[in-house]
What we know:
7 helices, single chain, mainly alpha, 2 domains
Amino acid sequence: MTTRRSVLGDVHVDRAGAATTEFDRPFQELITEAAWGHVWSRPALTKRERSMITIALLAALGQDDEVAMHVRATVNTGATREDIREALLHVAIYAGVPAANHAIKIAKKVFAELDAEKAG
Length: 120
C-alpha cells in the first residue's frame, strides 16, 4: 500500500478504497499485493522507468482511463513529459500509430489539467 500511495497519491487511493465493495474487495487486494507490493516495489527499475513502461503498455492496450491515471501519477514518479513522449513514440512504432495518437491526446489533456491545477 505504501508503494501504491507513493505512485498514485493518497487522494486516488483513498477514493478507490471508499468505492470498494464486498464484490471488488478481493480484486483491490490482488492489485495492491501483486502490482504494487511485488512488481512496482522491485528494486531493479526506478519508479520513473516503471511509469514509462506502464504508460506505454496501457497505451498499446487502449486502456484510456489507466493511461490518464498513470500520466497524472508521473508527478510522483519523476517521469517527465519528455519521458512520456518518448514512450509513446515507441508505442507508435511497436503497437500502432492510432494507439499512440489516442494516448498522446489523453496525455495532453492530463498535462493541461495539471498545469491548470498548478496555476491555481
